[in-house]
Specification:
By secondary structure, the protein is an alpha/beta fold. The protein has 6 helices and 6 strands. The N and C termini lie far apart (37 Å).
Length: 162
């Protein structure tokens, strides 16, 4: 699909799907718009499995990984490289994420509007400041329970918010 035919483009948009509490199947990869994993699965989804799925899901607009506390920077780097239309990300409770993953998200000029980082305890001031400076479309930013974040980066959030 080259997107030059308006009917073809709107048809593709209508085919987009939301996947909840599981990884998409291979035949679903190109149609996944929203991937929401809020509840732990049995067996648990590994970071390698998530990274492999994200590598193939290039049309993601929204990602919620609060049900996969084992998520690491590896998956976030893959997501930031593949999901050029990412508007919303929720990493609540993913305490293995560090500044590396968040800085990668901010370096890609993604159209992020919502970022939830509650309980991502490895984050420090540089990643929060980078969000404030790089995410010009940001409407909602949640930053609770971040023990390594100081008032300096919070000031940046305040200063750069529009």
């Amino acid at each position: 699909m080259d997107g030059s035919n308006p009917d073809e483009s709107s048809s593709f948009r209508e085919e987009m799907i939301e996947i909840t509490d599981r990884l998409p199947l291979q035949e679903e990869y190109r149609r996944v718009r929203r991937l929401i994993i809020q509840h732990a699965s049995n067996p648990p989804i590994t970071d390698d499995e998530l990274a492999a799925a994200l590598d193939a899901c290039r049309n993601l607009e929204s990602a919620v990984f609060s049900g996969i506390p084992e998520v690491t920077d590896k998956s976030i780097v893959v997501l930031s490289e593949r999901a050029a239309n990412l508007q919303s990300i929720d990493l609540t409770g993913c305490d293995q994420i560090t500044d590396v993953g968040v800085l990668e998200l901010t370096s890609k000029s993604l159209p992020l509007q919502t970022i939830q980082l509650n309980g991502v305890t490895g984050l420090t001031d540089p990643s929060i400041s980078a969000i404030a400076k790089a995410c010009s479309r940001l409407v909602d930013l949640e930053l609770c329970n971040l023990p390594l974040v100081s008032p300096l980066s919070v000031r940046d959030v305040w200063s750069y918010s529009r």
